[in-house]
Structures
1.
Amino acid sequence: MTDPDRHDGKPTSATSQTGPNAPNGADALIGALVEGGVDTCFANPGTTEMHLVAALGRAPGMTTHLCLFEGVATGAADGYARMTGRPAMVLLHLGPGLANGMANLHNAKKAATPLVCVVGEHATHHLAYDAPLAADIEGMARTVSDVVITPDTPDHVARDTADLLGRLTRGDTRVGTVVMPNDVAWSPVSAEITRPDPRPAPAQDAPAIRAAADTLRAAGNKGLLLLGAPRLTRRAAALASAIGAATGCAVRTEAAVARMERGRDTHPLTRVPFHVDLALEALKDVAQAVLVGAREPVAFFAYPDRPSRLLPEGCGVTAIAPPLSDIEAPLAALAEALGAATTAPVTAPDASPGGDGPITPDTLGASVAATLPEGAIVVDESITNGAPMFTACAAAAPHDWLNNRGGSIGYSMPVSVGAATACPDRRVLCVTGDGSAAYTPQALWTMARGRLDVTVVILANRAYRILANEMSKIGAGRPDGTTMPMMELTDPTPDWVKIAEGHGVPGVRVDTAADLTQALARAHATPGPTLIEAVLA
Amino acid sequence: MTDPDRHDGKPTSATSQTGPNAPNGADALIGALVEGGVDTCFANPGTTEMHLVAALGRAPGMTTHLCLFEGVATGAADGYARMTGRPAMVLLHLGPGLANGMANLHNAKKAATPLVCVVGEHATHHLAYDAPLAADIEGMARTVSDVVITPDTPDHVARDTADLLGRLTRGDTRVGTVVMPNDVAWSPVSAEITRPDPRPAPAQDAPAIRAAADTLRAAGNKGLLLLGAPRLTRRAAALASAIGAATGCAVRTEAAVARMERGRDTHPLTRVPFHVDLALEALKDVAQAVLVGAREPVAFFAYPDRPSRLLPEGCGVTAIAPPLSDIEAPLAALAEALGAATTAPVTAPDASPGGDGPITPDTLGASVAATLPEGAIVVDESITNGAPMFTACAAAAPHDWLNNRGGSIGYSMPVSVGAATACPDRRVLCVTGDGSAAYTPQALWTMARGRLDVTVVILANRAYRILANEMSKIGAGRPDGTTMPMMELTDPTPDWVKIAEGHGVPGVRVDTAADLTQALARAHATPGPTLIEAVLA
């Protein structure tokens, strides 16, 4: 806005020019998003977003879901986009609202999930006065976004938004933040909208494919094909397995893949372990690594006496697709260059439920695998208890598996909200540690509000168990009487059944493997959300 | 760290050199904080903070309180520091942990609360690998901190921390963030610590005081004395009232004061109203404003057709103490220049409880005032229902009143944790809207864990009522069938009694004024926390 009147406390009147029928900047923003294929918004708005709320209300083809905490909204948008492949919108209130949503924006950015984060800003003429909620929104947004735009007039909103969406769709940019000054939202649009042309997708790099084929052929069983992608499909798993069979190389995925198709109709793929020592052991003989959509594997944290890079020193590294790009085409080209033909996966035996004893990581895996509905979406935040579950589910009904690439906990219940919203005909299974669940319990309310078909399993070990494990590994000594209270969730023990019921979600507590299997089967068969507190042995 | 070995994946071994008895960078940090008077830490640590956790565990004179969400930790540190006048420490896990704590850091910064925020960072040699949790911590921290430091060697940690504490104590800096690389934490200290000398406090500006006295004398009843301070004491209220009586000027406080002493032993002070139209009306006749620790009043949000500045155009403005500084000395000097003598406050009649009907803003005020224990600390996040409560409590037992200067909701339960920790012999009353409470419900768990004497009143109107009020005021039309669902907390209605019990806090629901009065009296008389869900008419 260049109108000098806007800066002396006498803003131009907007109410007389705009109304429900005269498009303003807010309408331009929402209209451009709808036109670009965005149909869903997860919102936690405030006063500065009321014009955007009004525009959302009058936009045909846009559905808005209210969340009680911003971290739920951003995680839900991540889950929605992972399952639809299309960006979802988030609507947040000024800098502090953005701050509350940033941890799950971080996760979305690391997972290369396309997402449009709209943050309301004070009217431009109000910024000089440092009002209570004033903050450096752009500064915050840059830390969790690939691009940040702040439209300066309603006439540029549609063009800038369409351009941003184009970049998201092409994959140049994943998390895009629009900082929307309130006067830009409430002032009328006067100009024509011009749209940028979409740019073409990059072509396949044939010489790189041939070089990778030669490398893997020469390396034999000292070769590694490492996969990473926003979505690792059945076909990609088949192609990778064929390449492994043809060359003798090991095939692995990154430790956390944003979305993987899995189950008994899919070639099983092994992950790089999370635990640094297990990862070093798993990769110690690799002489040549070919990366397809993957980054070179690194330790989750640094530890004294352990390296940051997980591949052995001197290991050769070649990439045939950039990190987190689509990988089917380069894998198909690599398989063709090697003459590797895909085969049907070997049908694994049916999973059997987890017996009748206490709940352990192994019985958890068996219970989950035996009861998993066809087409389920598993959102995994099982942290210290999940490794056997991932393995067991290779023999389960076909499903998608969503992992956290950003490592910020409090991710799985929000992402489950979004996945269930995106796929109303599929069941979502959210498996989360109790420590993680305590960051974003408000997600339960949006599950209840939307009658979302989500089964939440809280793995109640009543501790930040991973910290007790990590403390001595990182050289800080064993937890003792003074430090253990900083990682224990007892005194009081959270009652997750009551927390669920408080948010409108029915809950049940189980402490045997048999009861967990039964509770899972019942929850999956019951419309709407259910929470199961699984008390671990 | 300038050791080149640190950057090639072969970190210097630390475990062989440091142990529980050999001080490392973490010990240097915690030791400098303890020496500087910091005795309390609110923590939500992760792997990169394990050496800091170990150092906290072995530091005599430091107590650590675990919080289940970072926003609880930062709010608690704010409350602790407001009540003790000394900075508290917060311990957070990497960028995403900081992000979750940023909204309440924003509030603390706006309230000028001294606070040391320690954020663990990956080891310096690990940063090049962009591990999952890697983020721009300094970029995030700068948006909510007055100063950010990142020690580069253990030998500088104590010096840099002492310098930071000195700045906090002098008031140059309020929120200070220390980004602590993990290798700096785990490596041994080898050098002597040198401490900076404290700088002297600034002297009083006598000519400015005389000019302000002349201004107020000349303005008569068109004068305004506007107060703001980190702590507005009984004596400051008496001095301000004396100045008002001597000159005929109006005396007001800012809309939100971080901490105010109030009650029947204190001269009552009126606030600048939150609502922009009420504020403009209240200030419309002011010709000369004298600011004492206050900022010039501005609208909380911008609205079409309303100005940002709340004082009339042409109003003279003089400041005799900078925003959020201590104000007793300049007020005493101004009173002396005016020959204004303080008097005893007029004893207000005893508050009578709120009758037997439904709970309204008026009966809420009466119930709270009639039952408020001597020396109580009121943490006010009552939003749309609180104005009569503030007024009624002027006649209540002497108490402190804490307000949110930053406007980011989810503030009051965390701040109550800190206030109750700071003042174990006083009762804390936390009054919060249900929308606000849903941002940081995890605070209840730390209240239960600490047996903190907190009475939490949830004002359950089952809506973001303020948004429904604000929507038409800001020109976005009245809420309708499409937009009202974006601000209603029904379907499902949160059950706050169950949410409290789930976090280990006993709860009760009331829906009449008489029951609320009774529940308040009972809660105040019961050791430990109680939650009262007050269903509003």
2.
Amino acid sequence: MIKVGIVGGTGYTGVELLRILTVHPDVTVSCITSRSEAGMPVADMYPNLRGHYDLAFSEPDVKTLAACDLVFFATPHGVAMRMMPELMAAGTRVVDLSADFRLRDLDVWAEWYGMPHESPEWAEKAVYGLPEVVRDKIRTAQLVANPGCYPTAVQLGFLPLLESGLVDPSRLIADAKSGASGAGRQGKIGMLHGEVGESFKAYGASGHRHLPEIRQGLSQAAGVDVGVTFVPHLIPMVRGIEATLYAELRNPADFDRLQALFENRFRDEPFVDVMPFGSHPETRSVRGANNCRMALHRQEQSNIVIVSSVIDNLVKGAAGQAVQNMNIMFDLKETLGLEAPALLP
Amino acid sequence: MIKVGIVGGTGYTGVELLRILTVHPDVTVSCITSRSEAGMPVADMYPNLRGHYDLAFSEPDVKTLAACDLVFFATPHGVAMRMMPELMAAGTRVVDLSADFRLRDLDVWAEWYGMPHESPEWAEKAVYGLPEVVRDKIRTAQLVANPGCYPTAVQLGFLPLLESGLVDPSRLIADAKSGASGAGRQGKIGMLHGEVGESFKAYGASGHRHLPEIRQGLSQAAGVDVGVTFVPHLIPMVRGIEATLYAELRNPADFDRLQALFENRFRDEPFVDVMPFGSHPETRSVRGANNCRMALHRQEQSNIVIVSSVIDNLVKGAAGQAVQNMNIMFDLKETLGLEAPALLP
Amino acid sequence: MIKVGIVGGTGYTGVELLRILTVHPDVTVSCITSRSEAGMPVADMYPNLRGHYDLAFSEPDVKTLAACDLVFFATPHGVAMRMMPELMAAGTRVVDLSADFRLRDLDVWAEWYGMPHESPEWAEKAVYGLPEVVRDKIRTAQLVANPGCYPTAVQLGFLPLLESGLVDPSRLIADAKSGASGAGRQGKIGMLHGEVGESFKAYGASGHRHLPEIRQGLSQAAGVDVGVTFVPHLIPMVRGIEATLYAELRNPADFDRLQALFENRFRDEPFVDVMPFGSHPETRSVRGANNCRMALHRQEQSNIVIVSSVIDNLVKGAAGQAVQNMNIMFDLKETLGLEAPALLP
Amino acid sequence: MIKVGIVGGTGYTGVELLRILTVHPDVTVSCITSRSEAGMPVADMYPNLRGHYDLAFSEPDVKTLAACDLVFFATPHGVAMRMMPELMAAGTRVVDLSADFRLRDLDVWAEWYGMPHESPEWAEKAVYGLPEVVRDKIRTAQLVANPGCYPTAVQLGFLPLLESGLVDPSRLIADAKSGASGAGRQGKIGMLHGEVGESFKAYGASGHRHLPEIRQGLSQAAGVDVGVTFVPHLIPMVRGIEATLYAELRNPADFDRLQALFENRFRDEPFVDVMPFGSHPETRSVRGANNCRMALHRQEQSNIVIVSSVIDNLVKGAAGQAVQNMNIMFDLKETLGLEAPALLP
């Protein structure tokens, strides 16, 4: 059994990790920390876990955490980077669901997160854990930076187009939409049901923290610096991300090759589903599941490739992908704990 | 492996059976029928099942069904009763999720369902499958009538009060609320998102088909004919039922005994969770799970017992309870396939 | 033109007052206060008001307010009672949308609101402003306590039954459900979209602040102290309240008289609509409008009267009723500013 | 008083016309037709209209309609074009909310709507009624083709960019999202709450009927044939459209001029609101109102102009714009009946 610790367990990614790990046969959760809720049983905060866990939240303690085989960080940015040197020194392996170790360029990180980075050494050593791109490095990594929710949906959809060089990398557009759980579980007025319900809007349209992460990932796939426009939107629902991606095909004749290109790219990927050309993936088809489903479209004789890509922001966009990364790191079957179908309707 | 057939698989209870059975270790689904969609792969209609099933819908055929160990009926009322005699003669076991075999009194059945009952023999032999009440009979039953969604939430919440005789059985009120999936997957204008979204209303307040089923179950628990008022309401959401139940305690001093009474009644029930006195169960705490969670309340010195009871209408209110019944019928661990926690948020 | 001031304008009742007053021909809003947002144009906070108001929020100042013909308080409880003596002394008229002056018994008030009442003199003089009950007193009142949202829906539905003495006043049950805007616009975790969306629950089932207000109003209508159980629920939507009311008819033969009784009781009421017997009022049929719609039901030969009553919690349950009260106080046509139909769908 | 008839009044645009016309001082609705519901009072179908209309649906009759000053068609496509010649001959003026007269090129019309056009003469004479573009022609038109919902949001947002020639007209992208009422009020399974609720998806991504209409309007604004990609999405809510528009600025230095360009373009438009640069218009800020609100964005030093544009699909996207057109046609104040602010929250 892999002994797991979770830091910052009171948020939505915390409870989602617990939910997924319940059905994982090879894992035991030995501690889950929360400064604010120390002492409270997790099942009191999250009644869906009643009968599944006896665990209570505890004060974060590096020694206890260091004794785990793996620690998940489900914290706001700025927390993991401070605790990382000590944990790394102890040899503990970590999957960090926060943004602390996602960006290579720490100046960019500092600019977008409003503070200097405090663990540059580990920022360099961290593996950006998108399994569909760097599975081998994840296997041996001590520290995996779990990708953001939007960046997962956007990168997976663009990957085959950029890796193949078939599209103009300077003209990428990602119009993405997310349910409200993506904003986390903090008492912000703007995220009240009374504000979010029955309404739709763009946000962060002039610049969102996931933009540099997306640009970094896409540039790596393309082999050149890409030009990408990314606009997130808030959907009046709880879970799910849909990203509609637009790219310009260099040679319109290549349209005929695209479906096969995508299917081949993801043929061996257990969690990426290329649907038939012209399909419309629904977010509910991945609700609670670790899948990314996507489909290709073309309008008349246009040279614009349209990709619609959906994930559950809390699963493939956070806790599920973290467990997938853990499975890879510990040489387990990659789908362990992640096999149940999505909840539809 | 238990060989299972599903009749009428295109509705919400059909897809939910498939979803649950995916993770059931001892079951294989050998056929799923649909007149209207024969030939279509189930994963084309329900993309959450992509990668989980190769099965396609087939024309209903009694011979094929009779060769199964168990057949689930997920059909509108009136279908199962016509096919039942032949299946029963063949020795096949059945869990009927429709209303055909739920009522003892076939005159009442005919009145509420607007047609004469065509299988009175099996209506008499059928076991009304609420495991928390008749587990032993289910074990050996050939035909189990799976309870309705509202009746499940309402009966479980009232059971300890009626069995103990502590409340006046002539003054029961059940104010129940359901998500829209309870109405099934038919193209009715009244169930459009444009009609249901952002609105709330009672319906069937002058009489709903689940009323006689509720009355039958509560009367059996009380040992006398009860007087019960049942008003269902439509919530602008997809899944979940909450029932707020009101009963008058004969002796207000008994209030102190109620929490223990409930806890004892359900102590060994794997799917009934009595929460601490004064809790407020949320439908999301059982979303996708086979649990019923309930809690007791009292207002000041009132003699009115308030019980709030929640289930997922498609799980404990339909497909989950059907699988629970199957597990009991085949001497499997009762919780097989039903162990994952609810999806929250 | 009536010169109006609004205290505490940043909440949902504040913006709703502004929305309604926009189309009121005889009113001009001369000031709207907010400590936290002083200086901000109201249209910056509430973009639906862009083009309708040039006004900015200002610091609350009693002198400025006293110069108004009418001041609306749209504040949390505890604010209005402190400013009231000075405003009353200045002769200013007030409609208080908060709970400060709703209860006659100040010990009960202190118990439920957790502080002593600071303006007992005006608590005694205040008129509880349910126009359908005390229109004449409102006309001449200096201070009107605007009823709460639940109490409005519940009282209107029970009124004819209690005034006529046809039901047992000791056995009243009010099962009420509200959209999330009823909780106001404060950054509480429990009211996040991620918590409220796609879920349903009871809350305050052991006692809610509107219970004593409901009991006071119903007791006055019945002429005796009533026994009433009131359980509120949270609907995953923004606006609207539905209350399903249960009462026991003393003489079942009276059922035949009930529809006429209700229609006669509200015949001259511009905002109460008794729908045909057996109807199911929807909250959307009153969205944005000052109407209360209700309908009666009976189940088979039961002696339980069922009333379903719907209002928009922000309109007839708050700002609309406040404007209705203002119209009465200033001898205007009672429906001024409140004539547009509800927004459906 | 202008005597108005409505053909096809049972859908969402029908009830919305009735709602708006209730508060219009210069209009009387003399008939509203429905083949399926003839004889039913409109207030029985739409209870928000109880107390506002005595009218019942009647069989469509050209003579009666011809006696109106203005007839609104709120019918599915294919109906208006058949009745138009007779009405036009009678001199009746018409605003057609259906798609029948929106496209100039009738081959394109036939291709997208699957039938030959039956009134080519009037298709040529019809004025495409986007007031912000052709107000003068609307004034004297006998037949106005009311623009579609998506085309309204998309055209208004692109107009200043195309008219000014500042962007590349061959690379326009419109990523649009709509609430479910846009699909009308027909019993389609795909539009059930159980299907639409808590989910998000693109649809019509390979080609939607509004694409040729959008292309026609944008090409006219640009003075050249534009290349536009248009992907609609379905939001789990009832009302509202948000369109995020992407265009490539020929000269990035022009970014500084854009806000002024937009403000000047719409300075005199009563229903178009250019919000401050970097704002995020919400659909709820126009719910129930005839406004289009929009805002501009730029990401870092990109040359991509981002415009977010919101309307209520049933108001500025249908019934409200139709009333605006009527006001123009009859030389009334353009805002009559359309002055109330949006319903927020």
